[in-house]
Design goal:
The structure is a single chain. The protein is an all-alpha fold and 350 residues long. It has 18 helices and no strands. It is globular, with a radius of gyration of 25 Å. It starts with a helix and ends with a helix.
Length: 350
Amino acid sequence: MGIMKGIFGMTKAAFFLISFLMFTSSVQADYARSVEALQNGNYSLAALELSDLLQQGDPKAEYLMGFMYYHGMGVIQDYGKAFELFKDATEKGHIEAQTFLGYLYDEGKGTAVNKKKAFELYQNSYEEGDITATINLGVMYYKGDGVPQNYDKAFELLSDIEHVDSPILQLYLGNLYYYGYGVRQNPEKAIQYYLRAAQLGSIEAHYFLGHLYQEGHSVQGDTEKSVQFYTFAAEKGYPLAQFNLATMYADGRAGRLDKVEAYAWLTIAAEQDLKEAEDALPILEDTMGLSEISAAKTRVLELKKIDPNAVVSPVQPIVQTSVTGTTIEGQTATRSAPPSRRSRRMIRRR
């Protein structure tokens, strides 16, 4: 009775404030459980925890559910549904959803390609301090994709968050320093970024490192390391690495002359429509006997059975533990490393 009297003795504003706080606390608890379930790989439970929040139009729930639809986590992959959820969340001010929506426009997933709209959404998220949007803008300026190519602007954006653990960020910083785009050329520093990108799982960075060790560019030539980096990228399905690895086996630069291995990798690269491999394959075949060609075709079948997810990198990997969004190249950006001074300001503004 005393409790009820206390409640009815309140002003209406105080009563609704307490009700709102109780509701908000319940929403936060549901959201926290859904995040935990998602992180633990229990996608069905995550979807269940999000269901009530989605009915209430909660933007954070819409973002997470959009993320699940995009990746096919516990639901049938559906870019269209992801697009609608990200769009709704964006209209309610959710910054990460806004960045992801930009990515969908950028890639034409769930909607038509619209680079202008993608740039606009990235720019808005960047101004709110979003790390992934910053990376995506930098890559757009680097490539001249949807905006005039501007290496200076690309370097300005990417170097400002250089400590963020994103393979795409580290890869493009390596490119900028290696080629001297937007910054004084510094191949030695480029190698550091390429190595970091490789540790974060960038397949392309492994390819670049294989090439640099093969040619002795900025590092001492090292055939063994070159083969290791090329092999990792090749087994992950990167056609240029498959082609270069094949040429090394074909001319004996891989530590041994092995036309069977060369033919096998050329075949796989050619099947991915790499013209260089398509052109080289008949030339190599003319130098081989029937038994070698037969063995090479058997080797092709063996290579195709390799599980890309089981391939081990020649460098110690850095495990990424949090997801904030998706970059243009389809990789996630995290904040596990100390950010630069400006990115600390950006994070605080959020």
